[in-house]
Amino acid sequence: MFTKVTSYFYRFKKTRLAAFTLLECLVALFCLSGSILVYSGLTRSLSANVAYLSNNEQSNWLLFSQQLRSELESSRFNRVENDKLYVTKADKTIAFGKSKNDDFRKTNATGQGYQPMLFGIKSSAISQKGNIVRIDLEFEGGLERSFVYAFEEAG
């Protein structure tokens, strides 16, 4: 009987299955939890950045100033009147200024047409000194920005 039990254990020892040790399991668990924590942190950071940019007036201002600069580069200055900037582009007079609503827009000289360029404007002031035009804008959130553009001298 003793030999039978010994031969059973001997066979068990020889046909032992490969398995993970406790240390290997802990290392795998540590790596997995670390990866999940890094992924979670990156996801939170990304969502915070997206929320900041979607509500950020700065990014709207940068886009507006680039658009206005490109519009004015191919235009000829006419006048500033009633807080509106009038320019000629391709033989058409275009006006830029704050509408009765809360946006700064591009229209034709009579105020028709609707092409908003910037929303959330509380107040706007446009002034001229020689060939230099200054547009001061105040956003509803309190942000204040100025856009200065120097037109080329005619002649």
Describe the structure.
- With 155 residues, this protein is an alpha+beta fold.
- It has two domains: 20-55; 57-150, no CATH class.
- The protein has three helices and eight strands; from the N terminus they run H-H-H-E-E-E-E-E-E-E-E.
- The longest helix is centred in the first third of the chain and has 33 residues, at 22-54.
- The termini are far apart.
Concise structural overview:
InterPro entries: ComGF. It is built from 3 helices and 8 strands; from the N terminus they run H-H-H-E-E-E-E-E-E-E-E. The chain has helices spanning 2-14, 22-54, 57-73, and strands spanning 76-81, 84-89, 92-98, 103-108, 115-119, 121-129, 132-139, 144-150.
Radius of gyration: 35 Å
SSE series: HHHEEEEEEEE
Helix % is: 40-55%
Oligomer: single chain
Strand content: 25-35%
* Alpha plus pi helix count: 3
* Weakly predicted, low-confidence segments: none
Strand tally is 8
Give the tally of structural domains. 2
> What is the averaged pLDDT score?
83
Task: Give the overall silhouette.
Answer: rod-shaped
**End-to-end gap:** 119 Å
Question: How is the biggest beta sheet arranged?
Answer: 5 strands, antiparallel
